[in-house]
């Protein structure tokens, strides 16, 4: 008995309807990327381990899918590593490549390799799949698409302002009103670590703080204690968990808390600049919110960081995020190349639009006209008309077999094809066709030009 096929956990098949909806989102995002001056690039689905590992923190590295070397990958493994069952040592000997974890680090590698061909500042966008060995759950997959836009080669905060406007433009065009663009600054987080006396534990501090929405304040404090952050330091951090009020009010409270931290105050100034700009150029449907505990636990962020939340009525994780990285390309030898970028979570955006019933009904329309097949001669007559209608921009198909009429009509109904055309001997003799509206049942005997004119109005 043949084994029943299945899919790896965290992956999915997509039906024609789902692909049409995904393409609709991608087209909207691509349009605005281009409209904001970004250029498209693509990079390989896998990279050298030396490119990826060590760029996402310990937790990120554990989620990278490694690819076994081809051939007899155990032949060169040292016996002591094999016998010791040391997975880290063993991995270094049997795998040299991994599936990409995100699009940002491959982009940094791309910039370094192509720096002599690029005009800086370089604005690029990239829409490709990425892979993470994460635990699958609603809105979280092991294979998913990222839609990234980055500017590299400029330290100007106007780029951050434009990215906020870009988020707003995309979600407004999708009809997804009420998203929250949450913003913070890694310099503020560095300042917090400084004023509580835990500068040397900045990474542990930010990784724990980034989990606030998942494990709550008690969980964050527990993890900080486990990472060696003192109880006294955690008590000094208490006001952060209690900040409230609008953007400016929180910045005022934060300024008092970070009054002795130069780097922290610099972060506040950057946030204030962005807030003032957005006040001058109000967003269409999104709202900009300050979230002091937002950390985004990736090591390469150095300035402003973003995370986009769906409207409150939808229970979903972030649907976008990004931030400023001052020296990401430095890890590949190109120093002092500041950049900033954001990402759209295609799969989660899809789920949100589906839940709120925001997909336009027309995007899933497929074949508009089906020609019924009555036999060899009739099929040839029909296929000549099919070719002409296709050239006029209609989506037209000929049923491939001269099956019973009922079977062909049922096929049209199941596919929601709105019109069928019948062309038997009688029609062929008169050089006409019978056009049938599948919803109303009305039939009209018309020549091809008349059919084209009638349907052009219907599908305009």
Automatic annotation (TrEMBL):
Per its UniProt entry, what is the enzyme's top EC class, as one word? ligase
Gene3D superfamilies assigned: Anticodon-binding domain, Bira Bifunctional Protein, Domain 2
Q: Which UniProt keywords apply?
A: Aminoacyl-tRNA synthetase, ATP-binding, Cytoplasm, Ligase, Nucleotide-binding, Protein biosynthesis
Per the record, the domain of life is Bacteria
Q: What is its EC number?
A: 6.1.1.21
Record GO terms (molecular function): ligase activity
Which residue range or ranges hold the Aminoacyl-transfer RNA synthetases class-II family profile domain?
1-353
Q: What is its main location?
A: cytoplasm
Entry-linked CDD domains: HisRS-like_core, HisRS_anticodon
Known InterPro entries for this protein? aa-tRNA-synth_II, aa-tRNA-synth_II/BPL/LPL, Anticodon-bd, Anticodon-bd_dom_sf, His-tRNA-ligase, HisRS-like_core, HisRS/HisZ, HisRS_anticodon
| Location(s) in or outside the cell | Cytoplasm
Reactions performed catalytically: tRNA(His) + L-histidine + ATP = L-histidyl-tRNA(His) + AMP + diphosphate + H(+)
Signal peptide span: none
**Tagged with keyword S-adenosyl-L-methionine:** no
Family membership noted in the UniProt record? Belongs to the class-II aminoacyl-tRNA synthetase family.
Report quaternary structure and partners. Homodimer.
**Any idea what this protein is called?**
Histidine--tRNA ligase
Organism, by scientific name, is: Psychroflexus planctonicus
Q: Which gene encodes it?
A: hisS
